[in-house]
Amino acid sequence: MAIPDSFIQELLNRVDIVDVIDGSVPLKKAGANYSACCPFHNEKTPSFTVSPTKQFYHCFGCGAHGTALGFLIEYQGLGFVDAVHELAKRVGMTVPQETRTVQDVAAQKAAVGMHEALQLALGYYRGELKKSDKAIAYLKGRGLSGEVAAKFQIGYAPSGWQNLSSVLPDYQSETLTAAGLVIANEQGRRYDRFRDRIMFPIHDQKGQVIGFGGRVLGGEGDDAGPKYLNSPETPLFQKGHELYGLFIARRAIRESGRVVVVEGYMDVVALAQYGIGYAVAALGTATTPFHITKLMRQTDDIVFCFDGDAAGRKAAWRAAMNSLPALTDGLRLSFLFLPPEHDPDSYVREHGKEAFEQALQGALPLSQYLVEKLSEENDLQSQESRVRFLNEAEPILKQIQAPRLGLLLRKRVAELAGVSLEELESSLGLKQTAVRRAMQPARASRKPPTLVRRLIHMLLMRPGLAVRLETRLLVGKTAEDEVLRRLLELAAAHPHMTSAALLHAVRGDLPEQLRTELSAELMESDDTLELEEEFAGALQQLQITWERQVSTAAELLMLAQEKGLQALTPEQRALLQGSRWGHAKS
Fold it and tell me: Distances in Å between the alpha carbon of 576 and those of 473, 479, 544, 546?
């Protein structure tokens, strides 16, 4: 569904960003603005600022910035359309529906149907748990309290082939198979996917049920099936994108400043039972870059905690390899291996919370883990063993885009292989100059603002000033010139737009660096300043510049008419032929 820009602008004008953010990140009054420790990176001194007058946020520590809409997308992980609906609901607005295609309508109806079916199934499973003595005994035997079971909405799917037919309106509906609740065999017979299993609902970022994980009560066997059975991939549920327990763990993750990634549902629930609420689990698949990116929105300290046996170490290596493309220099990613006889569930039950958290402190940083793994079966004593070491390190080093981490890891690999950093980079075809260039400070010293930049800043502060600026005076073709033209159009049509709405409307025209700088400049600006006199001075300068350019173009045009274009230098020809006003004067 394409949502009109005009609706987005009106929505941002009506919503209060302070209310939106304060519901997730408690804000404190700080002069004319509000502040908090940034939710996008760990810090002790608040640098995250929210402006009620400009209606946007900016972090002076990490550069994160945006509108209320952007906050829901980045912080809560919502998609654009979902974020728009969430904001619209807050202010009682209805998102326009007339632009939807037939496919959009059908897809939305299907999604609603699946959500309703999954919610009905969840209610049924939770109700059945209360009736099942053996399911309750199993959970109690695993050390779970009723409070924790309720928190995670744990349920029970009883034995039987078509139990859900008693609670779902149309058991023959294809919606049930699409949602992964019902299976249809080759003969067309339909039956429940989950039978005689403890049920763990899987939630999306909004807390909606999108799938289930079911665990047998006893051991594995031909009758019981696999120990864990997950919902299949559906339009609502993609295993490589979702993490069990993340919706419930978000607050604990923010408070602790870290997240622990474990392998199973019971690990997550058992850790929560012991007061470790910041654990999540991958859903029957290896950790993916999508998982890492999703977790990075919550914290920059991620610990993978795996069993110490061969299977656990294999899973850890897969997680490490899959995380490489998502790494950033601000991310601390580490690995904790428990004794071979333990998983997180058994370890915390035997040793308690304090011992588990003490163990987390000794987790191996990713760089150390990679080096140890690469060299554990290589003594690096012969030339051949060093070549093998470099061959195995090459694909890893090439995937790491984080400049500082990449540089330090290359140095360590070069040291172990007995070569210089330059020799390593040259032999492996690594782009040395690109990495070092990327390591330059992201926030370099700002140059004095250009005239156009000053005008952009003032228009964002006071959109009503747009009526005084004539578009004919804008003759440049830089990114800033194009942004100023776009701002003029918007501000002239909507003089009462907020700074946030204007910034959002031109986001596609703004290079990332320019958007970040403008956000910081606006946040630092004094809302009480009178800009009329400064704006008048800027207009006067713009008029003088325009007159000089028109005069120059006229002289060049006269020269070209008298002696031909060949009499002009390449620069003069480009100036004349490419100018917006040269042709107009001719």
Answer: 16, 20, 19, 14
> Model pTM?
0.61
Cβ pair 218, 269 in contact under 8 A: no
Domain-by-domain residue ranges, the chain? 5-91, 102-230, 243-371, 377-438, 451-578
Where would I find the H helices in 362-477? 366-375, 383-399, 403-417, 421-428, 432-438, 451-461
In the structure encoding, which two tokens stand for residue 566, read together? 């060949």
Cβ atoms < 10 Å from Cβ of 425: 19
Strand partners, 228: 215
CB neighbours of 64 closer than 8 A, spacing ≥ 6?
Answer: 38, 40, 41, 48, 57, 58, 74
**Strands 33-36 vs 28-30: parallel, antiparallel or unpaired:** antiparallel
Buried residues in 471-505 as b, exposed as e (16+ CB within 10 A):
eeebbbeeebbbbbbbbbebbeebeebbbbbbbbb
Q: Which among 293, 300, 297 is positioned nearest to 323, based on CA atoms?
A: 293
Return the CATH number of the domain spanning residue range 102-230. 3.90.980.10
CATH of region 243-371, choose from 3.40.50.720, 3.40.1000.10, 3.30.460.80, 3.40.1360.10: 3.40.1360.10
Q: Report whether CATH 1.10.287 matches the domain 451-578.
A: no
Instruction: Pick the closest to residue 114 from 210, 18, 182 (CA basis).
Output: 210
Length reported for the chain: 586
CATH number of 5-91: 3.90.580.10
How many CA within 13 A on the CB side of residue 285? 19
Of the candidates 424, 425, 491, the one whose C-alpha atom is nearest the C-alpha of residue 460 is 491
Summarised one tens digit per residue, pLDDT across range 115-146 is 899 999 999 999 999 999 999 999 999 999 99
DSSP state of 221: B
pLDDT tens across 167-181, in order? 998 899 999 999 999
